[in-house]
Structure formats: structure tokens, C-alpha cells
Amino acid sequence: MPAVPQLGRQGGDLDLVLGTTEARTGSYVDRGRVARSCQEPYDPQREKELCDAAERFIAAFVG
């Protein structure tokens, strides 16, 4: 079930668009503050496993 905004918060998600929350392009913003996303995207071993899997999947279509 998707999160339902609390009463009075409906326009608060526009903070980033309106410029009241400063964040670089690609930043993760959590409730009006810039935050680090989950740890998985920063794990080099996980990245290697993903690249290896992608190469295996592609190899099936590239002769």
C-alpha cells in the first residue's frame, strides 16, 4: 500500500522542486533532507556480482 501523506503535508514534497531543500542532481532526499540511500549501491562486491550476471545474460544473445 503506498504511503499516504499526513494532513498538512500535501505540498511539502515540493520543497525540492521549489528550491527550499538544496540537493545535487541525483541526490536522495528523505523528508526534506539530503540523505544517503541504502547501503547496497555502495557495495563493490555487489556491483561486481551484478556486472558478472549482466555479462552472462548478454552472452546468451551475443554469439
Main sheet, how many strands, which sense, barrel? 2 strands, antiparallel
Number of alpha- plus pi-helical segments: 2
| First-last Cα distance | 44 Å
Helix content: 25-40%
Instruction: Give, in spatial order, the strands making up the sheet with the most strands.
Output: 1-2
Q: Which value, in Å, is the CA radius of gyration?
A: 19 Å
Binned strand content: 5-15%
Number of domains: 1
Q: Shape from CA axes?
A: elongated
Low-confidence stretches: none
Helix/strand structural class = alpha+beta
The overall pLDDT average reads: 76
Output the helix-strand order: HEEH
Verbal overview:
This protein is of the alpha+beta class. The protein has one domain. Helices cover 32% and strands 10% of the residues. It is built from two helices and two strands. The protein has helices at 15-18, 44-59; strands at 28-30, 33-35. It has a two-stranded antiparallel sheet. The mean pLDDT is 76.
How is the topology of this model organized?
Layout: H1 15-18, E1 28-30, E2 33-35, H2 44-59
Antiparallel strand pairs: 1-2
Short précis:
The chain has 63 residues and is an alpha+beta fold.
Fill in the keyword field for this structure.
alpha+beta, 63 residues, single chain, 2 helices, two-stranded antiparallel sheet
